[in-house]
Design brief:
- The longest helix has 20 residues, at 174-193.
- The protein has one domain: Rossmann fold (3-Layer(aba) Sandwich), CATH 3.40.50.300.
- It has helices at 9-19, 38-49, 65-71, 85-95, 155-169, 174-193; strands spanning 26-31, 53-55, 102-108, 113-121, 127-131, 147-152, 201-204.
- Strands 2-5-1-6-7 form a five-stranded parallel β-sheet, covered by helices on one side. A two-stranded antiparallel ribbon has the order 3-4.
- It contains six helices and seven strands, in the order H-E-H-E-H-H-E-E-E-E-H-H-E.
Length: 206
Amino acid sequence: MTPGQPLTAADAVGAARDLLAGHERRLLGLTGPPGAGKSWLADQLVAALGPAAVVVPMDGFHLADARLRELGLADRKGAPETFDRDGYVDLLRRLRDPSVEVRAPRFHRELEASVPDEIVVPPTARLVVTEGNYLLHWPDVRPLLDEVWYVTVAEDTRRVAQLIARHESFGRPPAAAREWVLRSDEANARLVEAGRSAADRVVVAW
């Protein structure tokens, strides 16, 4: 594999294993546009690496729907301003310290809400994989991560097979799912794609 060549998912497992070579805790960020396969790849990495690794998604920091309605952002859920950015940054700072147990929220799509403290990161975890859209968009996040990988997939697969199907699976009618993807998700994707060149590696999810 030549320098700069995109990694396959299998290559990514090997690269993540290399991050475990030292004795210090490492934080690995996976970013990329909505539907690119970030969550899938994070789960693959942790499954391959076992209990030494844990996933802590950024999605746990979605603002509650009631708060989004107050802010007039209900139709923009998923945009940068619809997350508790400060809370996420604080969590990453705490995760840098492996001497204490850290708890983090988990977002449930079937509820469209986060459950606090559902994810437990024990002191024994040596690799924390965090995945989300804006790891390279928010400048206060990048310094807290040892590496950030950009996850990508063919555009038609991302939009149709992933995003539209995802929204339909959680109850949106097909026309509404397509409208949301082309209006909201694609606007967010353009923001994320602008940071691709700053990533340490590029991974083709499938």
